[in-house]
Amino acid sequence: xxxxxxxxxxxxxxxxxxxxxxxxxxxxxxxxxxxxxxxxxxxxxxxxxxxxxxxxxxxxxxxxxxxxxxxxxxxxxxxxxxxxxxxxxxxxxxxxxxxxxxxxxxxxxxxxxxxxxxxxxxxxxxxxxxxxxxxxxxxxxxxxxxxxxxxxxxxxxxxxxxxxxxxxxxxxxxxxxxxxxxxxxxxxxxxxxxxxxxxxxxxxxxxxxxxxxxxxxxxxxxxxxxxxxxxxxxxxxxxxxxxxxxxxxxxxxxxxxxxxxxxxxxxxxxxxxxxxxxxxxxxxxxxxxxxxxxxxxxxxxxxxxxxxxxxxxxxxxxxxxxxxxxxxxxxxxxxxxxxxxxxxxxxxxxxxxxxxxxxxxxxxxxxxxxxxxxxxxxxxxxxxxxxxxxxxxxxxxxxxxxxxxxxxxxxxxxxxxxxxxxxxxxxxxxxxxxxxxxxxxxxxxxxxxxxxxxxxxxxxxxxxxxxxxxxxxxxxxxxxxxxxxxxxxxxxxxxxxxxxxxxxxxxxxxxxxxxxxxxxxxxxxxxxxxxxxxxxxxxxxxxxxxxxxxxxxxxxxxxxxxxxxxxxxxxxxxxxxxxxxxxxxxxxxxxxxxxxxxxxxxxxxxxxxxxxxxxxxxxxxxxxxxxxxxxxxxxxxxxxxxxxxxxxxxxxxxxxxxxxxxxxxxxxxxxxxxxxxxxxxxxxxxxxxxxxxxxxxxxxxxxxxxxxxxxxxxxxxxxxxxxxxxxxxxxxxxxxxxxxxxxxxxxxxxxxxxxxxxxxxxxxxxxxxxxxxxxxxxxxxxxxxxxxxxxxxxxxxxxxxxxxxxxxxxxxxxxxxxxxxxxxxxxxxxxxxxxxxxxxxxxxxxxxxxxxxxxxxxxxxxxxxxxxxxxxxxxxxxxxxxxxxxxxxxxxxxxxxxxxxxxxxxxxxxxxxxxxxxxxxxxxxxxxxxxxxxxxxxxxxxx
Length: 943
Ligand SMILES: Cc1cc2nc3c(=O)[nH]c(=O)nc-3n(C[C@H](O)[C@H](O)[C@H](O)COP(=O)(O)OP(=O)(O)OC[C@H]3O[C@@H](n4cnc5c(N)ncnc54)[C@H](O)[C@@H]3O)c2cc1C
Ligand code: SF4
Ligand code: SF4
Known about the structure:
Layout: H1 2-12, E1 17-18, H2 21-26, E2 40-42, H3 47-59, E3 64-67, E4 82-85, E5 93-97, E6 102-105, H4 111-119, E7 123-124, H5 137-143, H6 150-153, E8 160-166, E9 172-175, H7 180-188, H8 191-206, H9 208-214, H10 238-242, E10 251-258, E11 260-261, E12 267-273, H11 276-287, E13 295-298, H12 299-304, E14 319-325, H13 328-339, E15 344-350, H14 353-369, H15 393-406, E16 413-416, E17 421-424, H16 433-452, H17 464-467, H18 471-474, H19 477-490, H20 535-539, H21 558-563, H22 570-582, H23 593-600, H24 607-611, H25 618-629, H26 637-641, H27 645-652, H28 656-663, H29 668-675, H30 691-696, E18 704-709, H31 712-716, H32 719-731, E19 734-737, H33 747-751, H34 755-770, E20 777-779, H35 782-796, H36 799-807, E21 808-810, H37 811-817, E22 828-832, H38 835-839, H39 844-852, E23 856-859, H40 878-887, H41 889-895, E24 900-904, H42 907-917, H43 924-934
Parallel strand pairs: 2-4, 3-4, 18-19, 18-20, 20-21, 22-23, 22-24
Antiparallel strand pairs: 1-2, 5-6, 6-10, 7-11, 8-9, 8-10, 12-14, 12-15, 13-14, 13-16, 16-17
Helix pairs in contact: 1-3, 7-8, 8-19, 11-15, 15-16, 22-23, 32-43, 34-36, 35-36, 37-39
The structure holds flavin-adenine dinucleotide and iron/sulfur cluster (2 copies).
Domain 4Fe-4S ferredoxin-type: 591-622
Protein name: Dimethylmenaquinone methyltransferase
Pfam families: CCG, FAD-oxidase_C, FAD_binding_4, Fer4_8
């Protein structure tokens, strides 16, 4: 059956059909606790492809699960049958009508892309889940998603005008609101559409009383189907009734959406309260002032924020409500209303967009951050978005807190307080049978509690597998029967997303982490202390929230941004690594070809280590994997050529002219071929005199000592960078010394997974550096500085390695910490941040130093230059390397005028910029050295 189905799909669909173990593993999870292995994944190219795919499934009675960004938290985007991924190709905005304020879209379009398409008209699509950078409209329709602005603009169902849908049996219908006459006419036309419409009309008539009393009682009643839209007073709106059906009734082919006018002014008023209960109790009084948002968070959440830049802007208190308003008058009335509520502690009004952004980031990161509790314990979804009518929020929250205490569960609460929707991820123990049983018991008790407060187990994420089997605890038997009847009208054989909403799969089945699965014993080289030394735990850090599928914003993940393929996202890689540890779908452990292929386009840029909310550190996992994968086996040629570059460079330094003559001669193509290097790449020229040769020939300076880390790249290829560094450091009053012996940070062996050699190299380096204790170590090349700062202690784990790491500073950090005032330059610049520096120290010190030097600098939007050490030089990676550079770096460099200096501290970034634009980028030290050469020298540290 499977093979026939797959063959049939391959013969019918043009967009792509994959049934290899790697793809099946990639699509086995969403952002929930569940794991279900599909039989095959289909990537429809267009409408015809969707129709053809469903027809092929029908011929084999194969169940279908539709999928967008796969960010669902309850398991409704995974299934054991055919997964249709709409996000890959079927993802366009088809039409925008600014006058009618509507847009027509394919279901796979990402919300942010729709927003970008309509922003120019001053319009916006109202529902705004926090996954807006990667969630699709199809997924939003599936879940009836919404976000913080639902107070103003409602849920997805409130913003859908009509849907073009297809049933499992192939009937295509356009549905929307209908008058009685229109409905009768459509039924009279007959056919399968007529049958469906008549059946739904009869259902609405038969269930009138139940629907009126049980459905649509409050805005965030997302659990179950929204049958209230079938009521005559709601104009029998089938489009709205199908929103939130989680792919269980129809496949959405396209959607016509209502747009709203973007508010001209936005201000953020933060109200401080003594605690979460007080904040919740205040909600009804504040909602009466009609803010656009009313979001709540508590102290526990702020403790998890890793970059607490905005925390000091929060007013006093232990819980806060974030109210967005569009006028100062609205702020005043809210403050007045808040002042009359118990536990009010103060307020802060953010009018500056930067201030607002910083504050919002606390709330937005919350969802991801809350996946780890203080102390590192894992926290899971399952009961993460229950909602009650807002007037019951305080009472519900108190009893819910007691319930948590009874189950000894922990979690940080936050959410859409204005609509009574509470987010919390809890410390369920899925690793034990007892913990799993308790999970199910807890869900039952929580559902009964939410029902007692008139609420809904889901307030926005949908029911999925986590909550479908709880619906009987909140809905009457009659209501459950109506929902089952609704489902069968559309999908009589139950083949669309079976197990969700109706005919529920038990919530404790298919759990991703389960005591019954024993991971493979996979010894590791790195220690993974944050994951109890357990690589399986490290790999399952990824909770699937999919921030790595965002196409803009942070640096993560450059390879996904180029290919748009789940396999090339951090999440995809983490999934495969996790599946590798389980040994069921991905067999072969460290030798797995599927994992190797998924890691192939990882640039080891380290961005995920910082940008991923739970710190999935793929660069480290890749090193680990490559080490085991190629152990005692031949490696790709580039591992020998570029992995051993420090050694080859040292040898070349004996006769650099000769080496250059050869590498720049007609023999270059053969050399590149041999070394696995892309033919398009120019081989860098070795300097005729290394920095060390220059430095050792000069007299010793005076002043406070600083140890300059002499990295391979600058020493052998661009010694002028290190010389400029010396010049500036000396002008700042430092006495520059260099390591007593030529040493290497081991980075090139690390990234190519030659961890034995990396360890030996690093051990020697640490021993050498430890011979010069108490002297700060300053690095000019960010990748090497970061390696000394983070990778060396991580790999060696010795006290000496940690001591060394503690002394490492970037060039800018050292100068800023020592209060250096550089000569003032009347310069303008743009700067490319090295992705390793982005992941480690950031660029605050660089910005500070440039500011002190009076440089008018614009940072190029966070991005990877695409070269990333050996990656962009490797033959098979050239195209991706260039495409990554084209995302932000190259356009910014091309747009910069001749009077604008291009700053790039990384050797890779400078090389990429030079090779692809012809512009010479400068290291920050070179820019400052120009000032030192031209003007007076100012220094502050005393010798
Ligand atoms: C960290 C985090 C924060 C979140 N914040 C919010 C939030 O603020 N508000 C909110 O509402 N949700 C939130 N969610 C849940 C989720 O991101 C949203 O519901 C989102 O809209 C799902 O979109 P998606 O493209 O990822 O859909 P998917 O997860 O891929 O699919 C969702 C459902 O839609 C169905 N579906 C997809 N395409 C189609 C189609 N063409 N036809 C029929 N059915 C289809 C799927 O079968 C599935 O049942 C959050 C999730 C996470 C992990
Ligand atoms: S890798 Fe990180 S950002 Fe990507 S889905 Fe996993 S947890 Fe989210
Ligand atoms: S290291 Fe960079 S390329 Fe690799 S997964 Fe992380 S963000 Fe993506």
